[in-house]
């Protein structure tokens, strides 16, 4: 166990949700066995974690060791290269949890330090934890597309809604507890964008906002798949829009409806697939171009199936409540045509169970992908 890398990782976690499209990074500087500087990065704060730690350490950084969760950058971005600053401050040794997956940086930061006489060590025992902390960033840098998570709340028999939940005037209630829903908000906070289908908007008049109250580097982009622009200009999604709502539609949608939405600040994009429906894959490609590194899907049965079957989804986060709805008319978590044989079922790997409450749990699992 390395207590200084542990501390750096704890600091980095404070930046989650506050740094995108940058990674969350923490740094600790130790001289003669004492911590003389520490810091973490936030987008609003501009300075990288290493620079914050150097500022705190001052002259005590000379001859010290820096423990940092990610390879110091070697290129000019919003700020000068951190590797140069470490060299100028006289840092003697750098211990990092992982190499930066960014092709602009990968290995070059370490190489610059070594050329300047700085000792470099990578503690691989912390690599997995460091990668998980910046899961979306690492995925984006390797694949050049956002990490897509399908989130759902369901009963033990895999249902997300009952037949009468949509009856006018009837309040269907929640499948999971308030604690589970609070946990969902933490996932939203880590996400750059969130997506649902028009069916969910019409049924629930949802907001899909980040309600953690914590600082974000940029607003959570709320996306609705709506092939015919049926979303009401008076819906809560539209009336709460502050340049953070995108509706994805098709060429079949009404020009007048599009204009009404745009007048309210909604961004309308025409992205349709070969079947004339709003194209989920095209949405992820657009997000990639605009450097949105993570997308959470909170939608209905059919959109969930489309995401899983098409390979757009990278992982699931399913919250299970100790309930059974039963019946043939209750709505499954993934609808659509499904697979015809058990041997053709969609399989997952790297399955993790998370205890949410004494009686609720969540399953986090990944779809097998080949990432070059």
Structure description:
This protein has about 375 residues and is α/β, with parallel strands linked by helices. The chain is about 30% helix and about 20% strand. The chain has twelve helices and 16 strands. It has helices at about 5-15, 50-55, 80-90, 110-115, 125-135, 135-145, 180-190, 200-205, 235-240, 255-265, 280-290, 300-310, and strands spanning about 25-30, 35-40, 65-70, 95, 120, 145-155, 160, 195, 220-225, 245-250, 265-270, 295, 315-320, 330, 350-355, 360-365. The strands form three sheets. It has a nine-stranded mixed sheet, with helices on both faces. Helix 10 links the parallel strand 10 and strand 11. The chain is elongated. The two termini are about 30 Å apart. The mean pLDDT is about 95.
Q: Please tally the β strands and state the result.
A: 16
Mean pLDDT over the residues: 94
> Helicity, in percent?
25-40%
Q: State the helix count.
A: 12
Unreliable stretches covering 5 or more consecutive residues: none
Order of helices and strands: HEEHEHEHEHHEEHEHEHEHEHEHEEEE
- Outline the biggest β-sheet: 9 strands, mixed
- Cα shape: elongated
Strand order of the largest sheet: 11-10-9-8-12-6-13-16-15
Q: What is the C-alpha radius of gyration, as a whole number of Å? A: 23 Å
What share of the residues does DSSP label as strand, in percent? 15-25%
Termini distance?
A: 32 Å
């Amino acid at each position: 166990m390395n207590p200084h890398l542990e501390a750096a990782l704890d600091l980095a976690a404070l930046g989650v949700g506050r740094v995108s499209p940058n990674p969350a990074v923490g740094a600790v500087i130790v001289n003669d066995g004492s911590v003389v500087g520490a810091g973490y990065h936030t987008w609003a704060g501009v300075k990288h974690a290493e620079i914050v730690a150097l500022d705190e350490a001052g002259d005590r950084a000379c001859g010290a060791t820096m423990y940092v969760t990610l390879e110091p950058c070697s290129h000019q971005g919003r700020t000068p290269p951190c590797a140069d600053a470490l060299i100028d401050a006289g840092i003697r040794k750098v211990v990092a949890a992982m190499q930066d997956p960014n092709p602009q940086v990968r290995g070059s930061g370490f190489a610059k330090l070594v050329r300047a006489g700085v000792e470099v060590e990578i503690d691989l025992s912390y690599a997995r934890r460091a990668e998980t902390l910046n899961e979306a960033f690492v995925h984006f840098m390797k694949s050049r597309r956002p990490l897509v998570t399908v989130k759902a709340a369901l009963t033990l028999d895999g249902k997300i809604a009952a037949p009468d939940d949509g009856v006018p005037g009837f309040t269907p209630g929640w499948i999971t507890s308030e604690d589970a829903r609070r946990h969902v908000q933490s996932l939203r906070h880590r996400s750059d964008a969130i997506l649902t289908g028009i069916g969910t908007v019409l049924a629930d008049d949802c907001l899909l906002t980040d309600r953690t109250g914590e600082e974000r580097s940029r607003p959570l982009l709320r996306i609705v798949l709506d092939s015919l622009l049926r979303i009401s200009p008076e819906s809560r999604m539209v009336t709460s829009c502050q340049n953070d709502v995108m509706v994805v539609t098709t060429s079949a949608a009404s020009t007048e409806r599009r204009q009404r939405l745009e007048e309210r600040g909604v961004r309308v994009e025409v992205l349709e697939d070969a079947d004339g429906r709003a194209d989920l894959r095209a949405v992820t490609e657009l997000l990639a171009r605009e450097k949105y590194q993570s997308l959470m899907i909170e939608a209905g049965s059919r959109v969930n199936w489309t995401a899983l079957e098409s390979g757009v989804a990278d992982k699931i986060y399913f919250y299970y409540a100790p309930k059974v709805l039963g019946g043939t008319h209750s709505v499954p978590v993934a609808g659509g045509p499904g697979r015809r044989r058990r041997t053709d079922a969609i399989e997952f790997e790297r399955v993790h169970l998370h205890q949410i409450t004494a009686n609720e749990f969540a399953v986090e699992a990944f779809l097998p992908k080949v990432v070059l």
